[in-house]
Amino acid sequence: MHSVFGRGNAMAAYTLSVLAGLTFCCFLSTVFLDYRTPATINTRQVVVKSIPDYSASREKNDLGYVTFDLKTDLTHLFNWNVKQLFLYVTAEYQTPSNEFNQVVLWDKIILRGENAVIDLKNIHAKYYFWDDGNGLKGHKNVTLTLSWNIIPNAGLLPNVGAIGSHSFSFPPEYTTSRV
């Protein structure tokens, strides 16, 4: 009546349907959890230079140098559905030429099983803090924020911001020293 291939196909389809249903139930068990946690960020050194940006044009643009401290405990974010966390610190500010500027300064990946307590001192920015003009010199309101993406086993890829941020200002003069 039924061939071996027909029975094999029915078994495979049923198995895949059950696995998809179980995966969806697993996703539902963690989708409504609150993944926010407090973080403390403080700046140590803030200077700005005016140097040519040869990657875009030869005109001089502002380049900010920021060192900061970062402290937070992310251990409670790991549950059975979290494979890893992708952390990043962004600087957000507003200039006359751009209403919203956001620059990633530092990032880190924390795998499940690694130490998720972050207590770093005097971190140098991992990426350049370029402005597309002269908007950093004397800027009074630059905000550093820690955020993370949760890489799950099943489900959505949420982007979560930490509770707390740090605002600082750049000096009104360019520095001429090496940083």
Let me know the number of strands.
Answer: 8
How does CATH name the architecture of the largest domain?
Sandwich
Helix-strand sequence:
HEEEEEEEE
Average pLDDT taken over every residue: 90
Number of domains: 2
Uncertain runs are none
Helix segment tally: 1
Instruction: Give the biggest sheet.
Output: 4 strands, antiparallel
Shape: elongated
Estimate the helix proportion, in percent: 10-25%
**Termini, distance in Å?**
80 Å
> CATH class of the largest domain, anyone?
Mainly Beta
CATH topology of the largest domain: Immunoglobulin-like
Key features of this structure:
single chain, 179 residues, alpha+beta, Immunoglobulin-like, 4-stranded antiparallel sheet, 1 helix, 15% helix
Briefly characterize the structure.
With 179 residues, the protein is α+β, with helices and mostly antiparallel strands. It has one helix and eight strands; from the N terminus they run αββββββββ.
Write a structural description:
- The protein has 179 residues and is α+β, with helices and mostly antiparallel strands.
- The protein folds into two domains: 1-30; 34-168, Immunoglobulin-like (Sandwich).
- The protein has one helix and eight strands; from the N terminus they run H-E-E-E-E-E-E-E-E.
- The chain has one helix at residues 4-30, and strands at residues 39-52, 60-73, 82-93, 101-111, 117-124, 129-130, 142-152, 159-168.
- A hairpin with a 7-residue loop joins strand 1 (39-52) and strand 2.
- It is elongated.
- The model has no long low-confidence stretch (mean pLDDT 90).
